[in-house]
Amino acid sequence: MTTQHIKFRSAQFSTSASKVGECPADIGSEVAFAGRSNAGKSSAINALTRNPSLARTSKTPGRTQLLNFFNLNIDQCRLVDLPGYGYAKVPVAMQLKWRKHLNHYLEVRESLSGLVLVMDIRHPLKEFDRMIIDWCIASELPLHLLLTKADKLKNNGIMKAKMEVTKCLPEHPEGLISMQSFSASKGDGIADLERQLVLWMKPASNAEGIAEPTLKALTSDPLSS
């Protein structure tokens, strides 16, 4: 059998869902991206897939109200762009509706292999971020903290920000949470993000009879309690 590797540049839009009942069949492996509306989530997905128009970026944060699914080149491996919220101009009632559907997705989705939480490295750990972190720890869902817009800081600023985030995390099982800095505009950190996602998706790939991708040492930072 021909060896196949997950190619994130192969990502293609599959479908959108306003609630869990409209999501694709709950099989295989998917990795979801979550983040506040102004954290750079869409830009991170577009950088990962090398497709500047894959995930819609908007001048009005908070406009994306759907769960958007993107198929990869390996059958039943997907990326999911979750609705962002927390933007002041979005009505509270709408934010609560998005939160309800997001919580339901996180609670029942069996194929969810891991979650990437996108945070602006200059403004991490807002209320929404802490809610997601607490949920992942309670559910023992693997979590990768993607600290975006790292090009806005110098190296010592990046190191300081990562140390502060690590210090402020709740107690959690060793290996459950990893973290890295990322710059969509410069492409810094794309390889590290790819390796983390491949690690999460390997079981589904192997279930399809596909050989495991060859991985170099993971350079994102594993965190322990």
What does this structure look like?
A hairpin with a 5-residue loop joins β3 (67-71) and β4. The chain has helices at 41-49, 92-108, 127-139, 155-168, 190-207; strands at residues 12-17, 29-35, 67-71, 77-81, 112-120, 143-148, 177-181, 221-223. By secondary structure, it is α/β, with parallel strands linked by helices. The chain is globular and about 45 Å long.
Task: Give me the secondary-structure category.
Answer: alpha/beta
What's the average pLDDT?
85
Find the count of extended strands (DSSP E, 2+ residues).
8
Unreliable segments of 5+ consecutive residues: 208-219
Number of helices: 5
Oligomer: single chain
Main sheet makeup: 8 strands, mixed
Percentage of helical residues?
Answer: 25-40%
Spell the H/E element sequence: EEHEEHEHEHEHE
Shape: globular
CATH homology group: P-loop containing nucleotide triphosphate hydrolases
Please state the CA-atom Rg, rounded to the nearest Å: 17 Å
Structure in a nutshell:
With 225 residues, the protein is an alpha/beta fold. The chain has a single domain, classed as Rossmann fold.
Blueprint of the fold:
Blueprint: E1 12-17, E2 29-35, H1 41-49, E3 67-71, E4 77-81, H2 92-108, E5 112-120, H3 127-139, E6 143-148, H4 155-168, E7 177-181, H5 190-207, E8 221-223
Parallel strand pairs: 2-4, 2-5, 5-6, 6-7
Antiparallel strand pairs: 1-3, 3-4, 7-8
Throw out a few tags for this protein.
alpha/beta; 225 residues; eight-stranded mixed beta sheet; 8 strands; Rossmann fold
